[in-house]
Amino acid sequence: MFRGRLFTPVSDPFGAATEAETYKAHDDGFIAIDGSGRIAAVGDWGTAPSDAEVVNLGPNALITPGLIDTHLHAPQLEMIGSYGGHLLEWLNRYTFPTEAKFADPVHAAHVARIFFDQLLRNGTLTALIFSTIHAEATDIFFSEAERRGFRGIIGKTMMDRNAPECLLETADDSYANSRALLTKWHNRGLLRYAITPRFAPTSTPRLLELAGSLKREFPDVYVHTHISENRTEVEWVHQLFPEAEYADVYDHYGLLDHRTVLAHGVYLTDEELDLLAQRRARIAHCPNSNLFLGSGLFKLHHVRAAGVVVGLGSDIGAGTTPSLFTAMADAYKVQQVQNVSLTPLQLWYLATLGGARTLSIDDETGSLEVGKSADFLVLDLSATPLLELRMSHASSIEDVLAGLIFVGDDRAVERAFIAGREVLTAASRE
Ligand code: GUN
Ligand code: ZN
User: For the purposes of burial, counting CB atoms within 10 Å of the CB of 311, is it exposed (0-12), middle (13-18) or buried (19 or more)?
Assistant: First the structure.
């Protein structure tokens, strides 16, 4: 059992009558974990069971749910900051050559270790992850996630056109290799599989058809892809699939349900938003990436008002950091320039419980509530002199969260637990 200050969202603060009912905060709180890694009790210290051993975290700690990254690319970690082009130039100039290197399993294993290290250091304890087209590299990412005790949804990228020859496969091979990985890894411990066609432009109709067949065979697997990130991309999709809007293309092949996560969605029409809402498909909003690639400004309130569930993604490596603190800060700024001011509670929700809802795993993680998996962080509110100064000024939990969002970074993440297992220790961060 851990004793310390504690904060957790418990419901959606967007549109709530009062934000106060959407979270629990305890200045002197505790969390108790049962033998199976679930939260046995949580609340005010005064209500803690008296028989358990107590680790007192002290006055500068904050216990809060693990952060959830709903969209990123593991193989792109090494190419962060590849500058100059917008989406399609960036893919051709930097992304495809980088991903080609993952034909080498030694390279994949090297990057996989650094990748999960970086996520844990940044407090990301759950993520939906693109691999490359390589089956072996994908297997390596899964193995490393399992070794670290990470909660991950991972998929082999599927591509059969409009990429360099060395990154293409036939639609049938893509199906067979995806299927083999799916049957090996889906629902193994904390891991899940995502059928991962890169996006419509690198997919023939046949590839999307086979991706749809796989989804019909295994209805509880995820579908992970991109949609309407960039104007030129949207025009290209109209040329390649002239009969339909972008979202209709995925729908036509049976790829949209509540376990579908579509990254970006900057340029979706109202008709497409209605379709996504009907199908309960989710959007991963990746503000850092949208700014870096100059893709555009996501209309968060408009998308949510249409009834579409939205989470936050770092979109490494178009995004320039795995930090969801930065994703929250950038989400704030992207809405600010559109005259919408998000609150710290809304931002923290998007990075935790909202992310869990986006991944349809909110019965398991995303908040600190009895019965859920004990997936939590111990943050150090005095991690840096600047954070300590900012916190000395914070009079409410909202302001503590604001300070963390705009001043906090990986240095504030002191310890991390997934399913009760310590996956980041103060010593392992050195
Ligand atoms: N659209 C298709 N592939 C990608 C990718 O790797 N990154 C981003 N940001 N958008 C994409
Ligand atoms: Zn992406």
Answer: buried
Report the separation in Å between the CA atom of 124 and the middle of ligand 2, taken as the mean of its atom positions.
17
- Which ligand has an atom closest to residue 246 CA? 1
> What is the Cα–Cα distance from 114 to 123, expressed in whole angstroms?
14
Locate 222 and state its tokens. 């995820």
Supply the pTM of this predicted model: 0.98
227 lines ligand 1 (CB under 6 A): no
Q: Does ligand 1 come within 6 angstroms of the Cβ of 315?
A: yes
Q: Are 73 and 315 in contact (CB under 8 A)?
A: yes
Q: Cβ(330) to ligand 1 under 6 A?
A: no
| Cα–Cα nearest to 11, from 388, 345, 291 | 345
Q: How many residues does the chain have?
A: 430
What atom in ligand 1 is closest to the CA of residue 286? Answer: 9
Q: Which string of b and e fits 176-194 if b means at least 16 CB within 10 Å?
A: ebbbebbeebbeeebbbbb
Ligand 1 atom, smallest distance to 130 CA: 6
Query: Which of 199, 202, 231, 285 has the most ligand 1 atoms within 8 A of CB, as the residue to mutate?
Result: 199
Residue with tokens 């996956």: 423
**All domains of the chain in start order, with CATH:** 2-65+367-429 (2.30.40.10), 67-322 (3.20.20.140)
- The type of residue at 36 is S
Closest ligand 1 atom number to CA of residue 202: 2
Q: What is the pLDDT along the chain (430 residues), one digit of tens a residue?
A: 999 999 999 999 998 999 999 999 999 999 999 999 999 999 999 999 988 899 999 999 999 999 999 999 999 999 999 999 999 999 999 999 999 999 999 999 999 999 999 999 999 999 999 999 999 999 999 999 999 999 999 999 999 999 999 999 999 999 999 999 999 999 999 999 999 999 999 999 999 999 999 999 999 999 999 999 999 999 999 999 998 999 999 999 999 999 999 999 999 999 999 999 999 999 999 999 999 999 999 999 999 999 999 999 999 999 999 999 999 999 999 999 999 999 999 999 999 999 999 999 999 999 999 999 999 999 999 999 999 999 999 989 999 999 999 999 999 999 999 999 999 988 777 6
